[in-house]
Known about the structure:
By secondary structure, the chain is of the alpha+beta class. The protein has 6 helices and 10 strands, in the order H-H-E-E-E-E-H-E-E-H-E-E-H-H-E-E.
Amino acid sequence: MSDYPAILESENLTGEERATLLRLARQALEEGVRGRPLTRLKLSKFPARLRQPGATFVTLTIAGQLRGCIGSLEPKIPLVEDVREHAVAAALDDYRFPQVHPEELPYIHIEISRLTTPQQLDYQDPEDLLRRLRPGVDGVVIKDGMRRATFLPQVWEKVPEPDIFLSMLCQKMGASGDLWRRKKLEVFVYRVEEIHES
C-alpha cells in the first residue's frame, strides 16, 4: 500500500465550488479558443478555498476521445486561475493535438482533476514498487534527473496493469519502457478529486 494519507472527504469541494470551477473553465475555454482576452476575475468574490493556491489538470474530450490535457503538479496560483489557465492551455497548447476550433466547442466535455500534494513513495526494488502502487487510486509521477512525467489516476481505466502503466509512463518521459526496472527512479503519488461537466 502507498504510505501516505488518503484524502479526507471534508477536503473535497462543495457542489457549488465544483460548479464554479466548471463554469470558469468553460468560460475561459470559449474565450481562449475564440481569441478573446480572458475576463478579469475579482478574487475576493470567491470562497476562500477557491482563492488558495491549487494544482489541477484540465482534460478535454469529444465523444470520449481525448482532445487535450494540461495541468500542473504543484500549487502556485489561486485555484480559480489555475483551472482557467489549464482549460485554455489544454485547448491550444497540447502538442499532441491541433488547436481546438470554435466549431468544436459545443462538443467538448471538460473534466477538472484537483490534485493533492504529491508524496514521495519509498520502495526497495521494482517488485516492491509494483506492490505499493494502487491501481485506480494513485496518480503517479516518475522523475529521472531533469525528466519527469505523470499519469492521472484516470489512466488506470485504460491501463490497469501496474507494469505496463509504469512502462508507458517511462516512454512518456522520453525513456525506454523498461527504465523503471533497470534504475531506481524517484516516484511520487497523489490523489485527485474529479470534477466533470454533466
